């Protein structure tokens, strides 16, 4: 028997690892593991677990429609594979690569266990178009700035990189199941079955992609595709979305940013909790608890910031332009460590993806790969005037704005900006 291990690829079609397993092997049994190492740290109403559970059920139904089944386990990966080794005659395990630090450590552990039992582990590229070592500078070192990376990425990519893997041609090679199994319930794993947030549809709108550069910065309208949660969990293939994105260069470039941040995380895993520019770890963050609390609750007195935080708290989503505004406000106006903001987003965002989130927060704090200096400080008022001039977004999320119930600004923009620049300048000197 050959095992195919689903992780961040919750789909049948255009799945690189599943395609390789089915094309090269007979009797392929797909599995998924609800990983206790990850789940134990989550809130019991975490909507991402519900999202995954719903798509695992869909995937299971698809396999069962083909006479097969998806075996689903709840435990640590090492425990699950120890059991599989004991219960099955396994010769090979296929899976798609994951580049986050925990995933790499987990896979090294599984590789060692399998190898000790004479079982091969084969990993495939599926989550990105170009992996960490595929787009390098002429001296074989990684790029540190996006624009030259993007130019080289476009030179390297071919039609083959965007081609779909025709999995369905080989579904006859799935292990046939006599008795399909039921999916473990969320309740059995200690999670709520109540859906409190809407999940975006899996199809990106052609009209949104066509008008992307005109609509993407306006938070009051549906001007972005909302595909990030589907890319995060692989319910849609990055290749499929890239092919669709060829209709609009701006959107296409945004997807290349995703590859770029994955590449940065691959080559510089320390950036998860250390500044990409080491000298920025000398910034004396003030981390005032009352400021952080006001920011989290959307009660800073800056309506565009507060609208963004309330949208996040209520929906698990925040518009990308607003993400930049609230991150700049926390790190520069409130002099709060970017790691605190990154952790809050990690807890709240449905589409949380470590590489992009860390990259975005370090961009806001000026400590990351971006070439812009520390004295870039977004003015939340001018950002609001530019991107929500009619207060449509603000009125939706901050209904008390303009009344006595809305708080005064907790800091004054000009003073806060000058203070941040002075602190950064002194620390970096």
TrEMBL record:
Gene Ontology biological process: nucleobase-containing compound metabolic process; response to stress
Lipid biosynthesis as UniProt keyword: no
Name of this protein: Deoxyribodipyrimidine photo-lyase
Names of required cofactors: (6R)-5,10-methylene-5,6,7,8-tetrahydrofolate; FAD
Source species taxonomy: Bacteria, Pseudomonadati, Bacteroidota, Flavobacteriia, Flavobacteriales
Keyword vocabulary terms for this entry: Chromophore, FAD, Flavoprotein, Lyase
Site (Electron transfer via tryptophanyl radical): 285, 338, 361
Positions contributing to FAD binding: 212, 224-228, 251, 254-261
Entries under PROSITE patterns matching the protein: DNA_PHOTOLYASES_1_1 (PS00394), DNA_PHOTOLYASES_1_2 (PS00691), PHR_CRY_ALPHA_BETA (PS51645)
Keyword DNA-binding: no
InterPro entries, alphabetized: Crypto/Photolyase_FAD-like_sf (IPR036134), Crypto/Photolyase_N_sf (IPR036155), Cryptochr/Photolyase_FAD-bd (IPR005101), Cryptochrome/DNA_photolyase_1 (IPR002081), DNA_photolyase_1_CS_C (IPR018394), DNA_photolyase_N (IPR006050), Rossmann-like_a/b/a_fold (IPR014729)
Family to which this protein belongs: Belongs to the DNA photolyase family.
Cofactor binding remark: Binds 1 FAD per subunit.
Transmembrane domains' residue ranges: none
Stretches assigned to the Photolyase/cryptochrome alpha/beta domain: 1-129
GO molecular function, one term: deoxyribodipyrimidine photo-lyase activity
